[in-house]
Batch of 3 targets.
Target 1
Amino acid sequence: MKRALLSISILFCIFSLSSCVIIDEGDSVKRKTEAAKIIFDNVEDNISAMVDLCDMAVKLSRWIDAPESGKGALEDLWFPDYKLRYEGDKWIFRDMSYYFTTGGKSLDSLNSEWIVGYGTAQRIRIKCTGKETWSVKCSGSLFTCNYHLSDANIILTGRCPLLSGSGILFDYDVSGSGSFITNASQSYNYPEYDSNPDNTLTISYNIAQKVRFVTTPDPESYYSNYDYPRYREFRASEGEMDIEVLDESTETIHAEMISYTPYGVVKYLTFKGYREVWTY
Amino acid sequence: MNRRFLLILAVNLLCVSSLFGQSGKREVDTRFGYGIYPLTFDLFNDNFWGCAWHDGYPSVKEDYHNALEFAGDRVSSGCFSFGRYYKVLRWMDLGASISYAGTYQTIYNSANPGLTRRDDYHSLFFTPTIRFSWFNREYVRMYSSVGFGLGMMFSSEDKDKNEAGPSIQLTGFGISVGKRLYGFSEVQSVGTLGFITFGCGYRFNVATFSKKR
């Protein structure tokens, strides 16, 4: 009887201990620099928002300077989805959140400065510092693309665009530095800035030489099948930048953009000693 | 929380012992069981059944942290239980079980997969139970049971995730085969002991306390 009980107990234990059940499948293996990609994308979006605003300001300035007979064609070319309004001392694009204060000067005049505003406090200063060269500065600004609280001091130089398409004026070489605090929440219903420090990151970037931002068709745009990109975004296509992420510890990322291809931008991201290629 | 724990424990023990006091012999049933898919508290964390609830998109910080690590499969040990039951009436047994259930998961570092940490949960339950035997023969018995008690869950990673709560086990159909040494299985079950349980046990008679007249 005792042997029987002992045998049954042993068999029971062996069977039970080998019968672990998977109740939740794990994640797929992630790439070593996947976290770096997330940070890089946010930095690219942040810089792209400023490049886009500067591009809009330059186009507006050239439209203002254009003869009356040519304004209609330029308006159709550069602002196909907006109606321009001059109210008080500001230029406003209907259905756009930003307004442009010109000070009565062309943005191609040396030392002329425009202010691009959003709401009552968010401001970006664009100043002409040379031929087709502008400095863009902001402090505590929020961009509607991601609501990250941003500071920046960058220089943009207009270059011949990589892609041919009417509606594109320049690609831009960008240099300088900036930083931003990420939005703590990205809610469907409440997209406004949330400053909960427990759920934010402080990210800073530095472009020592230059990074080329090219105008590319927005891949998510319904209208990208038109003969020119009606909705366009600026992507970092060539150059290098250093990024720092302040979390519980400080991590550094080195991004090397190689070239723009039909499949996306080929870039290398170095994170925690690992260098991996990404194309998207 | 400690006071509540002690109060529920005291009530359970009183209920169990309140039906004792008759003289004669009483059948005692001791059993070891193993249950599959026990309901444990970690299944009801914010990662409910493997889905994370979010109002919209995760924040950049959450995305960043999620990319720094990835999780392996979460494995359940099942539920190991030890129970002791007293036959108080021909059709009713009272008793309790002590059980352990664990879930185990390895978290890997994305940049260095050799660097891992554990995210394990260990649950202990004390479940007083009433069993209703609606089919009683010498070698075969069929029954249903209801158990309600208390449990504690311990996290290997974060003490803030430790929890205490109720232990519930409802069994629709159970069957035991054997006179003294028996095997049993319970199905149509839900609770901290598992959806399906099986095991073996032994029955013996003990003399009970009789009052002097």
Target 2
Amino acid sequence: MGSRTILEVNSLGKAFDVRGVRLDVLDSVSFSVSEGDWVTAIGPSGCGKTTLLRVIAGLLEPDAGSAVVDGARERRLGVAALLPQSDTLLPWRTAIDNAVLASEIAGVPKSRALAEATGLFEHFGLSGFETTYPWQLSGGMRQRVALMRTFLSGRSVLLLDEPLGALDPLTRASLQEWLLAVWSELGKTIVLVTHDVDEAVYLSDRLLALTPRPARVLATWSFDDLPRPRSRTDLTFMHRRAEVMNLLLEGTT
Amino acid sequence: MTARRILSPILFFVAVLVVWEIAVRAFAVPAYILPPPTRILAAFFVHLPLLAAHAGVTLGEILLGLLFGGAGGLGLAVLLYSSRSLEQALHPFIIASQMVPVFAIAPLLILWLGYSVWPKVAVAALIGFFPVAVNTLDGLRSTRADMLDLFRTMGASRRQTLAKLLLPTALPSLFSGLKVAATLSVVGATIGEWVGARRGLGYLMLQSNARLRVDLVFAAILALTGIGLFLFAGFRIIERRVLHWTAHDRRSE
């Protein structure tokens, strides 16, 4: 993995005004991500994980501190690719046309974008479904198309907001395997937010635990002692998972 | 079940015609007041070439009116969607424009545009543009906020967002507006012809009325109804083809 810092989050603070009441969501969150790394932020539901990603993506401006993505501090929109939590496929586009949307908007000629996507369909376990419309696909397949769109965006930093949250456990487990394979193959930098401890420990190079709202960094881990491919029945893995779980439980109460 | 759905309106319609026929004959109502349905039908077929010639003129006016009214409504909707201040400035006038009886300005339009097809086209367009504008604006506003955010993170320009997200989202509403506009513009073109014309079904109705040929008036009404139904059905067919992705939603409703 490269050692260049591609994402730097510095004492980030963000508050919302909810009907005249100030609601602190992020409180001096700091971390940095090296190129090619997989960093996960974990925290209880509603702790501000999504807000963190939205600030990094440039949809929101921080009230304090800064976020620098791939050298961009002020104009971050369009620098990192965001995969929102909700189902965001365009119903009037086929799977392949959805997959190339981001690169199409970035100005990649459509024929080249389509050729690139066609090559990846098998990789994403979707071959034969290129010209299928979203409503004809299962939830897991739709999510893979959305992930494909994120990977094909041409951006090096991918921000994934609970991409596997809405799926059943089996689909979820197989998509985790598959996500790891695609990530190591395509060499992207990933920032994932999740509330699933098992998923976080299984997938990440580094992990940040966040407190309930306002989110602060409670602890960070480097999983260098967990070589890939990881096994869920490995003792070190189980130990780490319990450690993260306990800390989150303490932080919540 | 479906057979009954088709059969019951036909039976009802036939029953009305039979009662009409019997009543007219039983009370010896003169044909210049109310002709029996058989006589109207006979007049329709005897004067088919005449009706077709006038119907062609009226249909042309309606289609041109729909084209201008539809394009104007769509353009206005996009304009109002993109500028909040413009919308606030124009909103009262757009509502007020619907309070102006188009009937009343039709003579003025004849004065300005002459006895050509254009005043009729103008009346049809003026009546048809409002439902298109209102429906399309609603459609544009129904665009999901998370989709708009996604496009922003992709670095999409205003034009790209309009072409690839906003307009496809508004398309079903645009079609709803066009279907209303289609029926209204039949009325609009007829009014335009009443006020001053040398051709068209509206003109034929006035002429026949003056000569107490009530059967021909009814035949012209029949032709106008046919045009309205034809346009409505036409838009429905185009709509189903273009909006193929909504077929799934319709089924699950």
Target 3
Amino acid sequence: MRRRIDRSTRPTATDGRPRSSNADRPAASTGATQEEKLARTRVRRVSETPEEAAPARLRRVNAPAAQAPERRHPRPASADPAPVRVDNPARHLLVVSFLREAWPNAEAELTRLAAGLAGEDGAVVLCRIGHADRDARKAGADRLAVLDEPDTLGRRAQLLALCRRFEPQRIILADDPAGAELARFLAASLGVRPAIGVSQLRGDEILVPAADGRSEYHRPLAPVMTVRPVACRNLAPSRTGEARTIEPPAAEPAERRLTDDGLLDTDVSLLPIREAEFILGAGDGVRDFDGFRETARALSATIGASRVVCDAGLLPRHRQIGASGHIARAQCYIAMGISGAPQHLEGIRDCAHVIAVNTDPHAAMMQRADLAIIADAQQVIPALTAAARARHG
Amino acid sequence: MDRKSLVLLLSSGRHPVSGRARAADCDARAVRLALDLWQQGCTVTALHAGRPDDAALADYLGMGLPEITVLGPLDDMEDAVPVLAEAAAGRAPALVLCGQRAETGEGSGMVPYLVAEALGLPVVADVAGVRLDGPGLKVLRAEPAGRRRQYSLDGGGVLAVGAFAPPPLPFAYGRMRRGSVVLQAMQAPPDRERAQWTLQPARMRPNRLDAANAGTDSGGNQALAGLTPDQAAERIMQFLAEIKVLNDAAPERRAE
């Protein structure tokens, strides 16, 4: 019964985004209009009786765009609708985002979530750390502040000064290590208790998994929250904000006993596999390993290897990727002459993009790859070094 | 305040799959950093707020700590932070080491910040290494994509040790037998705010596909045959540019 309801109310994928059932109430129902609420109620009622569920499903398949839940995610109607102006907001909500987003489109989703919590008379202040090439107006931000201080401690002082100036009702960040860390700093500085890793918003209540992951706390909305991607489903429709630019307040770090010495120089090609973001992996199809190391350095990629290569002693054991080696969580993995044994494929399960170069078009790695090139890896390696050097100068 | 006095805060860990009590991973890494500093002449006091019969304490002793002081006994609904802060302040440490985030309870990772506030010390999080440097300390912080940022600490600080610090020391049964657990009786206030929340078994929520697979659709699943090595290299570079990996590779453009 439960499954049936879920299936019948889930729209077919029209824009590629997964939807949850209406058992997950929309994250920010305050932003929904009366009409949308009515539409949702209707859908829920229809699907409660199994006899009616099937016709409802059929109708949806036939005319997906005309159905009610679709209107929760309207496409921007015209090219640039007039932005909503909020001049004297009753409250501020602060969204802090980094240059590198925690997940694709995280900043826009968090801004929409904040707009839903802010209501009609509240303003969303988007605070970006670093200049990012993203559209804050379309995301629905009413104000935009960009902090580009290179010193991490100076940046934190600026952010704190921004918080003191706007006194935001809530501060919302994405739940990744950097976001959670900044949230803790802000919560400690403002003397409030944060909610780290919110997995669902239900009106005035939030669900926060406990540390062991087996249970979750149901608690009131917190002043500082980091939000997981799973909580950013069924957001209120985005409005166009004016994204009025705010000069970040000048601030000096209060703490004089701690100084930021900057980043240390590290050789990216020798990073631990589990920390690497871009990996060049060598398999049995690679014969010249000095050339391979040069390619990795030219590309600023970390060296990885298959089990065969490590067994043969051609690369050290700590470079081995796979269930029997290290698990890679890279943005991009290039497999050079690796056929793709199951244990190796398990090790790259979390890699977002895979490129494979192999002479065998039927190798398992070629099926896994986003870009599969049927060629001899050993011949491509020097060409790749040259191409990378030409690009980086 | 003695520059060489160090307090180590230990929590009780849980294995993520079996749920058995064990040394918390980040805390175990903190033990290693603390013992490295101990070899350079620091005094190390290990504190744990909880129960003296906790099975996780044996793991820490087996890593080479001679003694753990248990503050309590406390139960789950009592607030450990004031107890830890009071006990740490009594020892006037220059340095407090602890794990980044607990493996039981709320697990918000606020303990280092709250203890730091009570002691009036600055915090460095995601610590991957620490060394004595003249009168001060040099602390390495792990950042995304394997970068390391160095901070200088003059005077004291609270270091929250993260998952990229050196791996924990191996457990040795003999060390565990030689180590001792000492109880220091302390009273803790109940955590009133948390008492109002309800704790329920977590419902499994599948990860969002679009968030988990960061834009895997960009390349499509394409197989190319009959390219010369130069053309193949060019196609790879083009793909890397499409998914913005090459731009990100320049370290100065990878801000936080």
